[in-house]
Write a structure and sequence with these properties.
With about 475 residues, the protein is of the alpha+beta class. The protein is built from 14 helices and 19 strands. Bound molecules: flavin-adenine dinucleotide (FAD). The site of flavin-adenine dinucleotide (FAD) has 36 residues, from β3, α5 and β10.
Length: about 475
Amino acid sequence: MPKQLNESTLEGLRANLRGELLLPEDAGYDAARAIWSGMIDRKPALIIQCLGTHDVVQGVNFAREQGLLLAIKGGGHNVAGNAVCDGGVMLDLSLMRSTHVDPKRKTVRADAGCLLSDVDHETQLFGLAISGGIVSHTGVAGLTLGGGFGWISRKHGLSIDNLLSAEVVTADGKVLTASSEENSDLFWGLRGGGGNFGIVTSFEFECAPLGPEVFSGIIVQRFEDAKAYMQFHAEYVRTLPDDMTVWMVVRHAPPLPFLDQSVHGKLVVLVPFVYLGDREKGEKLIQPIREFGKPHAEAIGMNPWTAWQSGFDGLVPHGARNYWKSHHLRELSSACIDKVIEFAGKMPSDECEVFIPHMEGAPSRMPENATAYAFRKTPFVLNIHTRWQNGGDDEKCLAWARDFHGSTEQFANGVYVNFLSDEGEQRVKDAYTEEVWQRLTQLKDKYDPANLYRMNQNIKPSA
Ligand SMILES: Cc1cc2nc3c(=O)[nH]c(=O)nc-3n(C[C@H](O)[C@H](O)[C@H](O)COP(=O)(O)OP(=O)(O)OC[C@H]3O[C@@H](n4cnc5c(N)ncnc54)[C@H](O)[C@@H]3O)c2cc1C
């Protein structure tokens, strides 16, 4: 406990909160500081479980006045682990999960602790959805502040492209609205600049009409055909309309019920897709993928949107050790595919994945500097998900990810800030173009010159 935090200081803080103030000896402290990645085991001096904007303001003012490090937990998913700090104040926003849909305007307001499942749950009541990620227990806050993409972003834009406004608590404890009309410079920076400029307490999104079912599924290609399939995939998916999104995941086959037991645990190429039109047209578009080689199996059909959105959750539950490395690829070239196949063959655990989403579509038609999210024209992302259970395997798992990443650097241009582990200052810069970085630094000077918000992929103020 930092010296200055005596009983009366803490009592003063507690008296001003609607939520709980948790100290290390309190029940609930360990659960509140736990995040998705089991690699991260940090112990804040105190945790404020915020129940609203007032609590957030109290927490920000307290941390600033006491000179304490401040960490913000939204969904707690981020692999870098910045949602929790050692010794400082952690603002746990995960209880702020109110979600309100305006079906007439086709908008939703989601509080800062919402998971994607919360928003899907409420918006689907009105046949609506937001553009978000593909695992339902991911936090809306961190995902959106980095950019946010998933199954419908090729058609409807990134999460930030659908953000209408945000309520923000700045480092001086003020509550601002950021939108294209109000504090538009802050609004620009929030859309890709992460939590560097303020704490967003709620987000207002435009929704897309969707569901309740979507034509979607997985085709499982053989690893023996991986080279030929990936070469085909690299070209084919780029010809598809924005309504069809097809990704690729190389991993050891999980025990999926539609896969023959003999395939379980073998290396495979999973080809999941979502089509936002009618089934008949979708079947035609997907046919060349089904006919390629001799797929092991497929599970294709009309699936409820909420079921599809949580269909991959079971592969990435909380608590495992995780280390990610990622880049944006200039193209999915033959030489890059060779590296993917080589490193897939050396995966250090059966839970590792090489995840290759196709990105082009509505996001890439927006001007490159429309928001702080850079590299909008990226065709593919190469995401190296290293996942394992035992601390004793750390060294070999980290080495695999780093070697794989290093040997594919030649094909890369930039990185998605939300896929960075704790990789140092230069990697944060790599997530932005020079022009965007300069603008972000100016914003940091304006909104957080003392760098109170630094437990993040940090953009330092210039002074
Ligand atoms: C299994 C898995 C699947 C994923 N899938 C996708 C995907 O499909 N698409 C995609 O785009 N990304 C995806 N991601 C990446 C994801 O976007 C990031 O991990 C994101 O940071 C998670 O947000 P969170 O709120 O859950 O995380 P947290 O760890 O709670 O927050 C991450 C950081 O964001 C900042 N932050 C959080 N809340 C706030 C707030 N309210 N105000 C200001 N700053 C805040 C803080 O700096 C914090 O350290 C995935 C991640 C995982 C682990």
